[in-house]
Amino acid sequence: MAETPDVVQTVQQGYAFEGPAIELGALLVDGTPNTEAAVRIPLSMVNRHGLVAGATGTGKTKTLQLMAEQLSAAGVAVFAADIKGDLSGVSQPGESSEKLLARTRTIGQEWTATGFPTEFYALGGQGAGVPIRATITSFGPVLLSKVLGLNDVQESSLGLIFHYADKQGLTLLDLKDLRAVITHLTSDEGKGDLKELGGLSAATAGVILRSLIGFADQGAEAFFGEPEFDTADLLQQRDGKGVISLLELPNLQDRPALFSTFLMWLLADLFHDLPEVGDVDKPKLVFFFDEAHLLFNDASKAFLDSIAQTVRLIRSKGVGVFFVTQTPKDVPDDVLAQLGSRVQHQLRAHTPNDAKALKATVSTFPNSSYDLGEVLTQLGIGEAVVTVMNEKGAPTPVAWTRLRAPQSLMAPASAEQLTATVAASPNNAKYTEVVDRESAYEKLAAKVQAGAEQAEAEAQAEQPQAEAPKPRAQKQEKSVVQQVIGSSAFKQFARSAGREIVRGLFGAARRKR
Hints:
Strand content: 5-15%
Oligomer: single chain
């Protein structure tokens, strides 16, 4: 399918850079791999981000597995969402077969069965992995608004609620904390607290509360709370290899917005915490953002702008981001323009919409010696059209590539293997047990109780002296709550919570460490 006779020489020259690289595969010429024309991504360019795209069943997951293996072997930590459990086999050595070895020989790959250090996580513990949670406070109003499907006015009001909670030291750890603050701000006692800032209408508060109830009914209560996940745990190495962290989300179809937005919170949190490192020989972490279209669907312009800003700036923190989706048109132009590496698997053109998507995909590639509109529909499984950035930051020639085979297991790990890996993880003890310390819910409940008791005391004071005072209800409970709320340690924490919270991209926050 090459239009020029020197395509091999062009690819050889374009990919002949020095230094460590991810070996993707060999150039295909008339259906035959040319092992002298290797297609690679320089490790120094991986934090310029990338895209892995293609129709369902064309090999995107195996490409992700191949790249994760080589990054790990180079000492680079990897994070990926393992939606179907297909990536869990990366923790186990692969299984040899004559068919596999025949394929690897044709592309010059020396295949050796190898497993890689892996951590398994599950959102809120709803799966086989170590529980991973965030607090409502650190998640922030912008990301939460995206999850709840709020409009601009409702998002603005939610931001005001977070602002109030931050300033008052009302820590929002879970959904019941947020509901308590909203209820307080619409009560007779609290509705005046936001008067100078424009107030919170009862109608808007009602919409947010109803959205939170629906969200909780989807099982979202388990995703928010403590202990909150420390994203520094994604940057581990073991025996010189980068740890591959896999996040499982069962029942993705029930809460797709939560899945994609939670991944964005992880990125925003990394951005807040990591220091600037500039250009590096290899990244600290490569973040594979699967089902990327879920993040961008129905997103506001402000939200998309924040994503583009995060992707643009996080590379200076030593983090590379690869979006994994079906077609490049799933990714907004401002983000797509920042993706230096492209691995495009087969696209289908069975419908008018497919044909339109194919045409749009072709337009996003640099000039090519191929008729890409034809090639992209003829790619076999395990083949892709590739272009990356060379060491000088210039795009390499477009190359029809037969990809290397992963060396780890190309099937899910067994339930026994998963259980054993999770049980042996040091993070299991760190994150498994749920912590429910005093926060906004408890503090506001104590405030209501104290007000009721004060009103009762005033009423009793107005009675004749001879009349015996009525016994106070829940005297023992009052004593316990007041001891907690009144302790100097708790007051210091509450003051520092309001003072230390700083919100940045997406309104996400983390207290200073």
